[in-house]
Batch of 2 targets.
Target 1
Amino acid sequence: MIRFKEHYSLQQYNTFGIDAKARYFFEFTELEDLMVFQDSNSSFKDLPVLLLGGGSNLLFVNDFNGVVIHSNVPGIKQVNEDRNHVWLEVGAGEDWDAFVDYCVRNDFYGLENLSLIPGNVGAAPVQNIGAYGVEVQDYIDTVKGYDLQTQTEYDVSASECKFAYRNSIFKNELKNRFVVCSVVFRLDKFPEFKLNYGHLKSEVEKYGEVTAQNVRKAVIQIRESKLPDPEEFGNAGSFFKNPVVSNEEAEALKSKHELIPLYPSGDGLTKVAAGWLIEQSGWKGFREGDAGVHEKQALVLVNYGNATGQEIFQLSEKIKQSVFEKFGIELEREVNVI
Ligand code: EPU
């Protein structure tokens, strides 16, 4: 199915709920639709392209004078199996959390810690989504899609995806060029739960035995207690990445700020909790008009109603500046500003 619109409001297509308009909007459900669209619309070829998934990781500060492509390929099918694993191919348009729920109900293990992350399956590899000690890269086998530049269909294997913390080839070399149509996941038939993050283990045990269902329940409970529901208040989850500094810099920070949360992340590097830096700079719960900083998790910026993208962006600039002045650390946005 193809849907094509002009001057189309993207308010329903971004979790910040910003009313930006796309000059052209194209939605498709099969890879072939995309090829037909590209062949028949040479007049668009010089316009910028924006690949849009569930819109849970972007902030529109202006209308988009180009072509928005929304991959809405449906379906979950098992494509392979061995003694220990199953391989599922999942359409880019499937809702991420509905897919996690499907896995938990069918005893396909691995993704339970990634419960309740907003967005679509197609965006999961782009962002390399992660939470509670798990990153999706550990369960991705192949990403399938179509390259608008070379006009070819191909697979990108997990090792070619160049996954890193909230990063991949799809945010770099293949940005706005490779349209993800489906993702093949390799999931475990026998569980190996990862419960070392924060208080996850004790939260799970509140529900009884350690099962995928209970891990999912605990993760949902933790997320709901800290993160605003985008249906209620527009937001895009963490607005900034947790900055990574050298172990020496981390030591120096620790000596000045005893309570700073630090996470060793290998290769002589340490991750610093950006939420803590922002809270310590006095921003937690701050609100100016309808743009604000969430009162329970300072890493999340919120649209309380009718904030514009510009207002949220300006707020993020002020936060960056004050964190830099206080800690000498340059925060990097996780959210894509359009
Ligand atoms: N903290 C504060 N104040 C705050 C927020 C956090 O002091 O306002 C402290 C916490 O007390 C804790 C530490 O910072 O010691 C870490 O906080 P939390 O466990 O909430 O996780 P996070 O590092 O802030 C990251 C991800 C989240 C993910 C959680 C859980 C990034 C940018 N964010 O947040 O991902 O859900 O860990 O794994 O890596 C997202 O990417 O959109 C997202 C929500």
Target 2
Amino acid sequence: MFQTQKTIENHRPQPGNQLRPGLEGVPVTQSSICDIDGNHGKLTYRGYPISELAAHSSFLETSYLLIWGNLPTAEELKVFEKEVQMHRRVSFRVRDMMKCFPATGHPMDALQSSAASLGLFYSRRAIDNPQYIYDAVVRLIAKIPTMVAAFQLIRKGQDPIQPRDDLAYSANFLYMLTDREPDPLAARIFDRCLILHAEHSLNASTFSARVTASTLTDPYAVVASAVGTLAGPLHGGANEDVIAMLEEIGSPEKARSYLDEAISNKRKIMGFGHREYRVKDPRASILQGLAEELFARFGKDEMYDVAKALEEEAATSLGSKGIYPNVDFYSGLVYRKLGIPRDLFTPVFAISRVAGWLAHWREQLGANRIFRPSQIYTGVPSRTWKAVEDRPTSIGA
Ligand code: ACO
């Protein structure tokens, strides 16, 4: 049924017994979805530069490209948009389940649970059936934003707002979140943010998705595991911490002393650094432009000057080590201006990244071999079990 990756002998890595913490530089799969040139700050999805997609494409068109490999025809795009629109609603059972979640819980935990719960409703694991795959893709892309917006209202004690069929994907999400039809510029900028976050090769959450996919489980479990991985502060969660950090700095003049103090105490500057890039992340540059577009129209966020001062100051102290702003550095400022609460920044990242996860799910199924890396054992070589009364009183003796 599935082509096995064992048959792909070309460029097979031979890491031997060498330990590679964080798998840095270890190829574990072949992929034709996205390419990163970290030395020159270039990123392409299926061969298209991210700057072109962010300028001209839509999130749904980009999702189609990522998942199915080519840009859709006008008819394919129309059908895909329509299907997504038709599947935006979530069952009242999912909404009722969300009402039982603690209002103080993090929205990423709510999203992980509700994404996993979809597997209960669409549990047929027919992953060799193209229709099942298509339906799962449509459902996940359609329902994740609805679930994010629903939890936001439920935790405030309000009823979720139903999707509006006359609104396009991004405008509808902002509407479900705020109960206001968004300004078209705000909706377009949000859509461009989704394009920028949709895919980024084998980052931690995508790797998690592929590991889960490799067991041939259902796509809802694949996405739920990726959501859990994205939540951490070293990955998608950094965008929340960036705003907290900018507020802590408070004013542009304090950027230098904050940086010096953080570096001397070996504290990371959130929103800086990336395993793949040695220059500024191309997505950070585009997001900075989007932030400026928003500020020009709706008024400036004073934290923007702090961010710019920090970037300028960091150019000397961190730039020499190849540490520059990543995608998370300016995204929070954009989301904040769009009226998105801080703890929804990472769920918004997930709304977008689900496209990349699903593209990798499909690719994994096309050449599957279960992930099962090895380890270097560092424990006690061999011991003999003793009855509890015969054990010494101090632990480890
Ligand atoms: N601030 C200060 N120093 C940094 C930073 C940073 N943000 N990032 C890396 N460094 C330094 C480390 O202290 C280390 O220095 P040393 O060699 O003198 O000890 C060196 O650079 C290597 O750092 P690692 O953490 O080993 O690099 P790695 O490639 O493993 O980590 C990561 C990449 C996790 C993104 C890291 O840069 C980081 O923690 N950044 C802050 C969190 C963040 O913004 N995460 C979002 C990443 S983008 C995304 O996931 C969507």
